[in-house]
Design a protein that fits this description.
Layout: H1 2-29, H2 38-53, H3 63-73, H4 77-93, H5 95-103, H6 106-116, H7 121-133, H8 144-151, H9 158-171, H10 174-186, H11 193-201
Helix pairs in contact: 2-4, 3-6, 4-5, 4-7, 6-8, 7-9, 9-11
Length: 204
Amino acid sequence: MTLNLQVYIVVGTFIVICIALMVFNFAIINYGLGNAPLESKVRKWRAILYKQITTTPNKKNSALNHQKFLQKKLANPDNLAAYSNALQHIKQEFPEEYNDYTQNCYITFRKLADIYSRKPLIELTCYTYFICNFPQVVDHTYGKLVNTLISFIDGSGVYCRANILCALCSIGNAQSVVHALQIISVKSLFMHNQLLTNMLANFK
């Protein structure tokens, strides 16, 4: 009887955590969008991204100018959410151009990591959620952005840690995943075992 009760408690806790993660991430996508409808912002970002991926390097709208533009605009979580939606469309409709585009974003999103590290936890979680969904913007070597993501683990909330682990597993660098798990273990940070198992199952 006691064993069955413990099983029910563990399963119930896991279900609550999963539901909370889904609700929280849904809220992140729509965080702070009261100034303009999400659809309107997404359309603008789609136009910007489409122009960027179809522009030849020698034209005025260079990759460097675009990176500077991203660093300025995406420091705002509202814009990051809309950009995320627009980038998903590009990923689905133009997969080859998407791969080329993301390979040029490493430095930009490394700099954005430093900016978001000084922001409130909910905004930092917005950033890690974006990285979780688009790990291609991370240099897959054990570079500065990976190290910065790992540094966020200590002192962050469970949702932020989940996003970071999700991103590291998608990137597929074993050393970074081990390092992150060591921090969670040494610091005794909460992370449900089943949640960890599901993330590690996605390791590439």
